């Protein structure tokens, strides 16, 4: 197991102490990061928060838990341990040793991939920066800050790669990552979903379930990269990402659980008057976050992505477990399309279909969330069910951007869409209602009316633990 030098200004396991030039570059980026955090990070003032801090990368004891002032969180640079004699698993370089340096011919493509991933990390912190004011419990407030500081660390992870391997251009891009801001008119974040607001906690749980999960799949493809430092960085990020998924999954569990309980208790379809979120509003939020997250995977076919694959820069989800030649030459695959005005699947060259391949993996994973939420409804004795909308629903990227589709996949005229969309996507009335439930609950052991308490606390602590101290 590699050891992290935790006494350093920038905790790391990449040997920063031995690389003065790199250390100076990162130290010169750090003040800008701190300014950005102060300006765009969590707004709610706190004294300290019970946070997990990455201190190592091994299987055992990679994280330390303790109360720390959020602004003094120790953002560090950690790569998963190297794999002895790691070989590239796919594409033209399959079987060759993984690269420890950037191959000149792939420099700009790799840099682009890292910048796009890096841009999403601080974006979500920006989107979530006011949520602390309405946290439904101290436990949830702590989880929000945990997600935020780790997204900050993911930014560090990408900035490390840019500084260490991409020279002056890399340093410039690292600066740009702090200059673009979510929702900004002049310099927005690169990807659409990261410029949407996260105005309330139902959105936050849906975001961490659906949109962070897109991140998990993107990281999964970069973890396969022939560029070994990128692969090892992403492998470690995925470990932290698992907690973000957990926050989303169990967050929605608890919302659905509360709604179901009140529906049964009051024998009604509308839990709204009883202080919970009506099931149809939960469904609309789900529809929205799922559909904007599907757009993040890009068009159905992409020659860029085919080239990334052939070059060994970006693999498929669980590339090494796939039972094929890992080259995909002269193979076919089915992708989404519109034929005769209707959603359809058409066959294309497998190499160009990799966005669809990844989106399909993601969709299958999302189904598992819906299954578990429906189990909660079934166990409450309710006949109601949640569902993922059709993949053509509410899409602005790819083949389905050209049609209007209902959640069941029925194609609609513009007028029909306008007339019905309020039944499928959150309306202003829905958002105002959800916002009206968002009152902060900062007393240990207490919780807001619209969700159940968690089954367990964090790191063996009880739910009523003082996860956050206020000034
Ligand atoms: Fe992240
Ligand atoms: Fe995340």
From TrEMBL:
Name the encoding gene, please.
boxB
> What does the record give under GO molecular function?
oxidoreductase activity
Kindly state which keywords UniProt assigns to this record, in alphabetical order. Oxidoreductase
**EC number(s) stated in the UniProt entry for this protein:** 1.14.13.208
Q: Which NCBIfam families match?
A: benzo_boxB (TIGR03225)
**Highest taxon listed in the record's lineage:** Bacteria
Protein name per the record: Benzoyl-CoA 2,3-epoxidase subunit BoxB
């Amino acid at each position: 197991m590699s050891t992290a030098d935790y006494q350093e200004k920038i905790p790391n396991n990449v040997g920063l102490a031995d690389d003065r030039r790199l250390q100076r570059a990162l130290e010169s980026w750090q003040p800008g990061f701190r300014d950005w955090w102060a300006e765009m990070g969590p707004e709610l003032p706190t004294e300290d928060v019970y946070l997990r801090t990455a201190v190592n990368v091994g299987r055992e004891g990679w994280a330390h838990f303790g109360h720390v002032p959020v602004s003094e969180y120790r953002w560090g640079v950690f790569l998963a341990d190297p794999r002895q004699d790691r070989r590239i698993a796919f594409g033209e370089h399959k079987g060759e040793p993984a690269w420890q340096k950037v191959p000149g011919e792939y420099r700009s493509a790799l840099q682009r991939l890292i910048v796009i991933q890096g841009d999403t990390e601080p974006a979500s912190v920006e989107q979530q920066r006011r949520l602390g004011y309405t946290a439904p419990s101290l436990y949830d407030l702590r989880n929000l800050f945990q997600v935020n500081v780790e997204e900050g660390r993911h930014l560090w992870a990408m900035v490390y790669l840019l500084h260490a391997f991409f020279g002056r251009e890399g340093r410039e891009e690292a600066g740009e990552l702090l200059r673009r801001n979510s929702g900004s008119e002049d310099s927005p974040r690169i990807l659409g979903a990261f410029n949407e607001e996260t105005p309330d906690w139902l959105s936050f749980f849906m975001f961490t379930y659906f949109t962070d999960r897109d991140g998990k799949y993107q990281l999964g493809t970069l973890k396969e990269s022939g560029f070994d430092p990128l692969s090892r960085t992403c492998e470690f990020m995925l470990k932290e990402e698992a907690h973000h998924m957990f926050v989303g999954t169990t967050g929605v569990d608890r919302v659905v659980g509360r709604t179901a309980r009140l529906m049964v208790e009051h024998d009604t379809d509308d839990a709204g008057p009883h202080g919970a979120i009506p099931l149809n509003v939960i469904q609309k939020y789900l529809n929205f976050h799922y559909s904007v997250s599907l757009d993040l995977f890009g068009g159905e076919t992409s020659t860029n992505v085919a080239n990334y694959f052939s070059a060994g820069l970006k693999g498929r989800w669980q590339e090494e477990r796939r039972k094929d030649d890992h080259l995909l030459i002269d193979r076919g695959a089915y992708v989404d399309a519109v034929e005769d005005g209707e959603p359809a699947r058409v066959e294309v060259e497998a190499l160009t279909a990799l966005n669809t391949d990844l989106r399909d993996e993601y969709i299958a994973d999302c189904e598992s969330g819906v299954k578990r939420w429906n189990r909660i409804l079934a166990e409450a004795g309710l006949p109601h069910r949640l569902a993922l909308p059709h993949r053509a629903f509410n899409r602005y990227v790819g083949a389905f951007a050209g049609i209007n589709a209902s959640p069941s996949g029925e194609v609609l005229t513009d007028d029909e869409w306008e007339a019905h969309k309020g039944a499928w996507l959150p309306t202003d009335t829905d958002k105002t209602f959800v916002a009206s439930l968002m009152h902060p609950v900062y007393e240990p052991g207490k919780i807001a009316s619209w969700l159940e308490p968690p089954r367990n606390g964090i790191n063996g602590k009880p739910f009523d633990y003082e996860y956050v101290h206020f000034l």
